[in-house]
């Protein structure tokens, strides 16, 4: 009998506390600014250095480029930039090594789908994923913030 009263006391005590659940998906879940979500890709900033694909531990990034068709301009022009989110672990390494910040993390995390084929995202889809970009990527970095040996 004492166990029943003790359990009822715990229940009554917790009924007066504020709720800790969210009405998801009607109201968005607050995430910290350093949350590692789905990437946003800006093809105009990309210099096709291939560092993001090389540092990726799961090899989920496909990046190809070709010579610039304008002979007066140097560098490469991006052809293909795809990410396979079926194996991507959202580790943030691709955004850390990008020298031009062409790829940045967002706070978006919803990738639920009924088909694995829908988890293969192309350059256009990644470019259109531009909501909730991290605040630190919205402003310019302070001088000396880029890593490297001194």
What distinguishing features does this structure have?
NADH dehydrogenase (quinone) (non-electrogenic) activity; elongated; alpha+beta; 150 residues; 5 helices; 5 strands; 3-stranded antiparallel sheet; two-stranded antiparallel ribbon; EC 7.1.1.-; disordered C terminus; iron; 23% helix; iron ion binding
Descriptive account of the structure:
Residues 140-150 have low confidence and may be disordered. The strands form two sheets. The chain has a three-stranded antiparallel sheet with strand order 2-3-5. Strands 1-4 form a two-stranded antiparallel ribbon. The termini are far apart. The protein is of the alpha+beta class. It has a domain at 34-134: Alpha-Beta Plaits (2-Layer Sandwich). 23% of the residues lie in helices and 16% in strands. One of its GO terms (molecular function) is iron ion binding.
Give a brief rundown of this model.
The protein has five helices and five strands. The chain has 150 residues and is an alpha+beta fold.
């Amino acid at each position: 009998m004492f166990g029943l009263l003790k359990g009822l006391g715990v229940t009554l005590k917790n009924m007066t506390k504020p709720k800790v659940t969210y009405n998801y998906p009607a109201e968005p879940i607050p995430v910290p600014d350093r949350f590692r979500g789905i990437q946003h890709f800006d093809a105009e900033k990309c210099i096709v250095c291939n560092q993001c694909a090389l540092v990726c531990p799961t090899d989920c990034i496909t990046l190809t480029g070709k010579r610039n068709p304008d002979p007066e301009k140097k560098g490469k022009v991006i052809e293909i930039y795809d990410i396979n989110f079926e194996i991507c672990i959202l580790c943030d390494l691709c955004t850390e090594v990008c020298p031009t910040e062409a790829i940045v993390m967002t706070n978006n995390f919803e990738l639920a789908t009924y088909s694995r084929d829908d988890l293969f995202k192309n350059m256009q889809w990644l470019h259109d994923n531009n909501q909730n970009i991290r605040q630190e990527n919205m402003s310019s970095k302070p001088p000396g913030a880029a890593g490297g040996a001194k």
